Amino acid sequence: MSKKEANWLERNTFHHSIFWDLIKLVEEKERKNLKISLCIPTLNEEKTIGKEVLILRSELMERYPLVDEFAVIDSGSEDKTLEVASNYGADVYLASDILPEVGNKRGKGENLWKAIHQLKGDIICYVDADISNIHPRFVYGLVAPLIHRDEISYVKAFYDRPLNYSSGLRPSGGGRVTEILIRPLFSLFYPELSHIIQPLSGEYAARREVLEKIPFPIGYGVETSHLLDLYEMYGLETFAQTDLDRRVHRNQTTNALGKMSFGILQTFFNRLHAQGKLDKMPDLETFYRRFEVEDGNYHQLIQEVVEEERPPMIEIEGYLNRFNAS
Amino acid sequence: MPIEQIDSKTLLNDLLKEIPSRIEKIRQTRDSFLTDAVLLGEIPSPTYGEAERIRTVVDRFRENGLDSPMIDEFGNASAQLAGSNGESSILIMAHADSVFSPEVRHEIQVGSDSLTGPGIADNALGLAAMISLPRLLQELNIQLNDNLILVANSKSLGRANLEGARGFLETMSLPVRAGICVEGSTLGRLSYSGLGTLRGEITLQVPGDYNWKRFGASGAISHLTGLINQIREIPIPKEPKTQLVFGGLKCGSSYNTSPRQGSLRFEITSEGDEIIGKMENELNEICEQFSAETGTLVAMEVVAKRNNCGIPFSHPLVKTTRSIMQEAGITPQVDPSTGDLNALILGGLPAVTLGLTTVENLREINETVYLDPLYAGIAQLVTLIQAIDQGICET
């Protein structure tokens, strides 16, 4: 790992607990005259949306006025998501009603993209709707680096995965698609981006000035595309990441993860193509990069993985002699 | 009619008139106490393991601007909202412990008109309502003359035998006019007396040198069954009202091995202290005799014992509470307490326990509190505090 990369990891990786003083955070936000919008994209989330709206509104709008605007943007839920969300005071929008002249596409990325048009904040924080242990840290942990550090424009969340935890040492906590697909891909093509501990986390906050400049895949590739596009435009320094401790959410089936991976691969290869990395393929990296967290410190583990190959057996003289092949 | 009585009546009538608008105002400002109920409810807080929930309560007290929040030597969190003259105080208590172990997933679901999860009624909601009082009083433009002492007491349930509440009261130095215990369950609950209670655990052990060949020899399950049958023969009087409940039985762990030990938990409640004493003696005799006759080791441990206590039904505190409930559309259900109220009344304080809302599946994983009745439940609490503050509840 280069010194620059180690430095980034040290300076731009936070734990939410260092931002506990919300009074100070609100003061700094007001001093910088920033407005913050919170967006929850939804599709049939009646079981968890009530708690998210109740807690985040009550704590971050009423008790501490950190968030100026709170919207639920829905893809057409058929359950009580909209009723429950508005019962607890969220502004509720149908994605199809926003910018109707561009038409309607169904997917989480559509809601995130239309939020940029609908919401007025200088910073937009996105939080998924399926978090069953929602807590204000899921928002203040992400917007705080943007409030404090002007050079940061995009903050990703990462989490504990308690099932993997044992004896103080735990792996980086990515989900299955992160560990099996994204981290190997980043190690091969964008080694610097492998410092993002959970590149697919659905919680992130960003400045409007960068969000308005990038395209949004409407489906599974939206988180990956954000990282690739902003990295291409601004480099690693524009990112930060915050440890939000534990996130409890529903588990996905392997089939669903396969579909997700397929969508992500499309996004990924589109960018490789656009950046000329497919036509002029560089030598592939042979270092696989992953993370471990120990006592609150994050270590990147770099392991050389060289896939050596043997030729077809039929080219081996000894084999030919043994079987009298010609 | 003496002027003082007329004044009390007028004061009370003025307060009662406020209740309907107060219920609406509380409904509109519900978010902060519902949030507290969810956040506190998601922190496991078994009896003797309340420390994290108690720390969160202290943080909340501090965030609400209360004077010197603290955790005392008994593990209770307390804070004070200073009154305008502060010569006396009103004590509000909500227990912080729950019957659920930390292994249970403490997740509270928020529905349109309900909250569901382990311990939300008993007593995350009561705790949240107590914590929210300073904000609620401010939003309702109520300035008290008395200090309001808020206590989240630990070690209340089961074997803890009200240790937290008793410890707090023993060391409290401020003059207190009256106390209110706040419970999530159930709207309409009106407790003004503490029921005489004895909680105990009987352990039975088959000794190492037990003669398995003797006539009637068997494992701990059969012996405990026999013992329970003998206990059930104890006559239980209808007057004074008395009840014996078997609350827990632990014995064995397999299909085909006779266990060597087991235990039985029980509770006797009675309106007659002498009945409790008599039944305790009978239980001891049964255990001794059973032990001798079966060659097993039987021991009874009393883990909690309390005498009957209470204030009269005609006490102004009880009368005023009933009037407030009636005005709030709540039907009072008189229910003697076996909880913290005992500690308050035995400590010499006039006190009542109130429940806040309707509840389903109490003490189950899917314990549910309903929100619509809750606003009236909190309005009754606030109005009763104001009535105590105005001296309406004095004898």
Description:
The complex is a heterodimer of chains A (326) and B (395). Chain A contains eleven helices and eleven strands. With 326 residues, chain A is of the alpha/beta class. Chain A has an eight-stranded mixed sheet, with helices on both faces. A three-stranded antiparallel sheet of chain A has the order 7-10-11, covered by helices on one side. The model of chain A is unreliable at 162-170 (pLDDT under 50). In chain B, the strands form four sheets. An eight-stranded mixed sheet of chain B has the order 1-2-6-3-7-16-8-15, sandwiched between helices. In chain B, α1 (3-28) crosses α8 (316-327), α1 (3-28) packs antiparallel against α10 (374-389) and α6 packs antiparallel against α7 (273-294). By secondary structure, chain B is of the alpha+beta class. Chain B has ten helices and 18 strands. In chain B, β1 and β2 form a beta hairpin. In chain B, 37% of the residues lie in helices and 25% in strands. Chain B is elongated, with a radius of gyration of 23 Å. The longest helix of chain B is centred in the N-terminal third of the chain and has 26 residues, at 3-28.
Detail the topology: elements first, then pairings.
The complex is a heterodimer of chains A (326) and B (395).
Chain A lengths: L2 H10 E3 L6 H10 L4 E7 L3 H18 L5 E6 L6 H7 L3 E4 L13 H11 L4 E4 L10 H12 L5 E7 L8 E3 L4 H14 L14 E4 H4 L10 H13 L4 E8 L7 H21 L12 E8 L2 E8 L12 H7 L3
Parallel strand pairs in A: 1-9, 2-3, 2-5, 3-4, 6-9
Antiparallel strand pairs in A: 5-8, 6-8, 7-10, 10-11
Helix pairs in contact in A: 2-6, 3-4, 9-10
Chain B lengths: L2 H26 L2 H11 L9 H13 L3 E5 L5 E5 L7 E7 L13 E2 L3 E3 L3 H20 L7 E7 L9 H9 L4 E10 L3 E3 L1 E2 L1 E10 L14 H13 L9 E10 L9 E10 L2 H22 L2 E10 L2 E2 L5 H12 L5 E2 L6 H6 L4 E7 L1 E2 L7 E3 L3 H16 L6
Parallel strand pairs in B: 3-6, 3-7, 7-16, 8-15
Antiparallel strand pairs in B: 1-2, 2-6, 4-5, 5-18, 8-16, 9-14, 10-12, 10-13, 11-12, 17-18
Helix pairs in contact in B: 1-8, 1-10, 2-4, 6-7, 8-10
